[in-house]
Amino acid sequence: MLRFFLLLIPLLASLAQAAPQSVLQRPVELDTGSGVLRGTLLRPKTDQPVPVALIIAGSGPTDRDGNNPLGGRNDSLKKLAQLLARNGIASVRYDKRGIAGSQDAGTDERQLSIELYARDAAAWGQRLKQDPRFSQLILIGHSEGALIASLAAEAAGADALVSISGSARPIDQLLRDQLQSRLPPPLLHQSEALLASLRAGQQVPEVPQSLEVLFRPSVQPYLISLFRQDPSEAFGRLRIPALILQGSHDIQVSVSDAEQLKAARPDAELAIIEGMNHMLRIVPMDMGQQLASYGNPNLPLARELGERILAFIHQQFDSRNSKISR
């Protein structure tokens, strides 16, 4: 680890003064045979093949840019894609089925599953692998997208994977911990009963109105599929280089999750970014400022986040043309 840091410091210092590369942006579509998924391609303007990242968004109605109508606009994944493109790395980010531009591909959320999302990610990856404009394929998953990336990596033919704010625990356990401090005791008791039923594969037709946003009957098949997965096991099965990134001020996923992922794959790189929260920004551990960051697209990404990802890709693929710019 020390040797890596010694190599990284002069690399960042020598490249930090380079001019940003020109960037091309294009809409992209993927016909899955059961619906069309829509996304955005950003790539540096060059005739040479470049690495390409498939950026996979997190849970709920989170769109390709990292925005969620329930949480606000923050543009976290859009900013990440722009950073990569300025530094010589192409990316595709896309709306998952039923969300934003891909809404028509998932009009009935009862048909959605984590396995379907993983197959969609794999199909995107296969397409990018066949594109002569690109050299290596990196999957970058944020939050629940990190689990999808782990599940899709082999079928996608990925050359490397970056997990950002990914849980190591089954997601029902993560939800239980998140709700523990946010619900009054009666609702907490009801939520735990719902989680236990869904974990056992049993749908619950009657849900308290105050819990419908999380447990409405139409989303329960998806939750059942999600709760079947063990993120640590999925990550541990990877046989490609992997980078784990976790913020110390993340109020949704803990540092211990990142450490458990590292334990599942001891050869993976792990970086805990001091002060970074779930929206990939440096935010104090103050709940008001934390929640405000979920709807503030003007906050810059945590600088170390970009540096770590660029250094990882450079290290894996000897991307000599990658230039760190802001």
Question: Your description of this structure?
Answer:
- There is one protein chain.
- This protein has 326 residues and is of the alpha/beta class.
- It contains 12 helices and 8 strands.
- The chain has an 8-stranded mixed sheet with strand order 1-2-4-3-5-6-7-8, with helices on both faces.
- The N terminus and C terminus are likely disordered.
In short:
This protein has 12 helices and 8 strands. The protein is α/β, with parallel strands linked by helices and 326 residues long. β5, α4 (144-156) and β6 form a beta-alpha-beta unit.
Order of helices and strands: HEEEHEHEHEHHHHHEHEHH
Largest sheet: 8 strands, mixed
Strand element count: 8
The parts where pLDDT drops under 50 for at least 5 residues are: 1-18, 319-326
Give the spatial strand order of the biggest sheet: 1-2-4-3-5-6-7-8
Rough outline = globular
| Alpha carbon gyration radius | 19 Å
Q: Give helix % range.
A: 25-40%
Structural class: alpha/beta
Number of helices: 12
In percent, how much strand structure appears in the residues? 15-25%
Terminal-residue CA separation: 26 Å
Let me know the average pLDDT.
91
Described by its quaternary structure, the protein is: single chain
